[in-house]
Amino acid sequence: MSKARILLVEDSELQARSALKFLEKDGYEVQWAKDGKTAITLIKTHPIDIILLDLVLPDMTGNQLCHWLRQNEDTR
Q: Which of 35, 42, 38 is nearest to 59 (CA)?
């Protein structure tokens, strides 16, 4: 059984690197986005199983990104 493909949305490089190291060590395939706009691009172009989402991002809130995900037919 393959591991989940994870999108990590985190603007802090220190926190992101720590989470990436931990997740990749366990064999997860992880994409990292530093902001909401990059996250949306990755969601549209890469298969994602799980999103780990920071609530405070430089260009939008995590809640706004969740709202976009719920409104988009492909990501509901």
A: 35
Predicted confidence at residue 76, as pLDDT, reads 82
What's the first-to-final CA gap in the chain, in angstroms? 24
Tens-place pLDDT, residues 46-72: 999 999 999 999 999 999 999 999 999
Q: Where are the domains of the chain?
A: 5-71
Architecture field, domain 5-71? 3-Layer(aba) Sandwich (3.40)
The answer for residues whose C-beta is within 8 angstroms of residue 37's C-beta and 6 or more apart is 59, 60
What separation in angstroms does the CA of 31 have from each of 9, 39, 43, 46, 71? 9, 9, 10, 9, 22
